[in-house]
Write a structure and sequence with these properties.
7 helices; globular; alpha/beta; 181 residues
Length: 181
């Protein structure tokens, strides 16, 4: 399966892909300061990106703690990206933030002393992959969370919901897990 995993943001959207067995990561950074212009850049980028022959799109769920303008922007960015893939017939699986952090066991928590380099080193140590930014790492950990949810009956409600969504999409979970190794 060709899979794209996305950590959406107005300023730094992390993207991790597995296409024909090859892994890649990048960060899309819209330019300028105007919110609407950045949103239009995100739209154009992901309209084109969604044509990439993906079988599945994984995307970070909305932050339950986002309030006010932050919540609005998060909704706009996430909605645009989700719609781009759905419009191309690519199923979207939302992965709640607490779920991927809990299942992978690695999280860069705001307000803590963990530096980006420590976070990237933790990902590299646990998963044997070296990523360049925390945005790429977040997208990768979303990917790993879904992979683990497909393979194991994990106790977290979020993991069970992910597994159910994959089953609803009629995705062979055992093959999906093996394909991702």
């Amino acid at each position: 399966m060709n899979i794209v995993s996305i950590d959406p943001s107005l300023n730094h959207t992390g993207v991790f892909t597995r296409v024909n067995g090859l892994l890649d990561a990048e960060v899309f950074e819209p330019t300028g300061k105007d919110r609407v212009k950045k949103l239009s850049q995100i739209l154009l980028h992901f309209v084109a990106y969604a044509k990439g022959g993906f079988d599945l799109c994984l995307i970070e769920g909305y932050d339950p703690g986002a309030k006010g303008q932050q919540g609005v922007i998060q909704g706009e960015v996430g909605g645009i990206i989700r719609a781009c893939f759905e419009a191309r017939g690519v199923p979207v699986v939302e992965v709640p933030i607490p779920t991927w952090k809990s299942i992978t066991g690695i999280a860069l928590k705001k307000g803590t002393k963990m530096a980006d380099s420590d976070y990237l080193n933790a990902v590299a140590t646990k998963y044997k992959i070296r990523l360049q930014t925390s945005h790429e790492a977040d997208a990768y950990l979303i990917f790993q969370c879904v992979r683990m949810s497909a393979r194991k009956l994990l106790p977290q409600v979020g993991a069970q919901n992910i597994r159910q969504r994959l089953e609803d999409l009629k995705i062979d979970l055992e093959t999906l897990y093996r394909d991702w190794e």
